[in-house]
Predict the 3D structure of the following.
Amino acid sequence: MKLKKGEEIEQSNIFTEIVLDNLSREELIDYFISINEKKFRADQVYKWLYSKSADNFESMTDLSKSLREKLATGTRLTKVTLVETTKSKIDGSIKLLLKLEDNNFIESVILKDSTRLTGCISSQVGCRMGCKFCNTAKIGLIRNLSSAEIIRQIQRVNEVALKEYGKELSNLVFMGMGEPLDNLNNLIKALEIILDENGMNFSHRKVTVSTCGISNNISKLFKLKNAPNIAISLNATNDETRNNIMPVNKKLPLNRLLEDIRKLPLPKRKRITFEYVLLKNINDSLEDAKRLIKMLHKIPSKINLIIYNQTEDSKFEQIDYDNVLKFQKILTDAGFSALIRKSLGADIDGACGQLYANYLKKRGKYVD
Ligand code: SF4
């Protein structure tokens, strides 16, 4: 569609202005110095943006009026808007639909269990990894989220958690839409703010990045002052099966992936989580359980067994709970920590692999 003249000007302004909340702390300081402002002013703004979730300059009341006006003229802040929430009648989990400034949408989920409120966070609009058990894969990759969009998303999720449950998120998992390590630079920039005590102040023990296994990028997370937890979405014990359900395996076969994981500079007491979605007659045999034991030998690990959420158009079937228990027993008998992960949010399409199930419907309903 051709834009009218006025719209062109408006669009170009958006993209040439400095997006202040897309800057790292160091970049923010550099920017303030470049406009002849003191470093401590940058620190004040940083605090407003990330520990007080400010989304406009007027609310930054300890800055002078002239500085607020200067910032409002030369820069802008990112907007991520909550458009809809859906609450699970089964377990109280909440799915959020969020709108981005370019009329794209993402979904996030608040997973509620007895002790934790976990924000399941998206890193991309769509995903290009093509995992066969995942709804997000069906729309392909539309674009990466900026670091500011990741942060604003978390702030919106936190606001809903406070409103609905009277408390803030305790944990974050990058397990929503997208492959976080396919958007590495923006992820790292966001993580620096999430884990910074002057920023969002999450403990690195409470933040998990889940990946289908882009191993050369996993090692880059260990350059952060405190690396988050790492979860690998494994889901198979041989290349043939993994190639079929996770095309990424064709580029990085299991042996190489595990070899790379063995080389990670894991701090003491940190373990890698292996996610294993059990798919009936695909990867759920007792031989699979035995192979898994051999594969994870000498990797400090814990295993999450995930029961597949079967939907109307699913290609895969859910396995019987008895068989999940048998699979688990083989692992625990061999000394592994293997938890069966309760599938939260399944009735709201908010469970693992279900995000963006209704993408086109939602987009049609809420686009301006
Ligand atoms: S499971 Fe994760 S990595 Fe795989 S297609 Fe879905 S969103 Fe992408």
In short: The pocket of iron/sulfur cluster is lined by residues 127, 129-131, 134, 136-137, 177-179, 212, 353 (CB under 6 Å).
